[in-house]
Predict the structure.
Amino acid sequence: MPDTTSGAGRYAPSPSGDLHFGNLRTALLAWLCARSTGRAFYMRVEDIDSGRSSDASAARQLEDLAALGVDWDGEVLYQHTRFAAYEDALRRLPTYECYCSRKDILAAAAAPHALLGAYPGTCRDLSEAERDHRRAALRAQGRVPALRLRSTVNSWTVTDEFVGDYVGLVDDMVLKRADWAYNLAVVVDDAFQNIDQVVRGDDLLSSAPRQAYLAHLLGVATPRYIHVPLVLNAAGQRLAKRDGPVTFREMGDDVLERLGASIGLPGARSAAELLERFSIGAIPREPFIWL
Ligand code: GLU
């Protein structure tokens, strides 16, 4: 990683299929935001989901990004090489074991007074004897307990470039199950890579308070957030592969031009040309509709 005095941005794809127009647009915006503000730009492959990630998919995604003209500094960081760092962070956080299945949680969360969307705390205050009993029952089914954060807040405030102050739910989030949890990995790795500008789809805005709270507990700086509107299909749903020829390889030569047009910069022939004309303040605030 090169030394940087002015921070860094990043793109952090999950390698579970080819990037589509919406993903490419977010990647391009992240690159433009970083480069236009003199930041380094890093690439991080978020391959902690062992069931869905593949090296082949990561390689194709990186090839497509490079072909688009999105370049990055240093080596690509793969999250599967980072487990020791996550383990270290986990040791510094207050946690408890949770034995709940998804069904248990849904049932408890439906109770009156439950905080919408929050883990109801079922396993927070169990006695040691109860823990031993439930752990053994889980093991008998071949499952492992989850580790949850013992949170002392219910909400946390982050500042987003477009939304301003945003208050979001913080609960006893899962930090590790069979796999490491995204929320923990993203915080540990953003700090490790010196990321001070996070540009990503606004579907992740509601996760930002959880992540900022973890950053606070771990004593690392919270990045500046720029959550950008997603690409939606004509029905108003998030763009997906079933919406037609939407990946770089399917779309052919005019991808860059169409990406430029979607961010209000029509007619550009290269990423470098987009960079010359780009400013963060001019990013469209409405979702882009794919027709
Ligand atoms: N890996 C996540 C995704 O592909 C993005 C995480 C992030 O940017 O914080 O949706």
Notes: Residues 12-14, 46, 186, 200, 204 surround glutamic acid (CB under 6 Å).
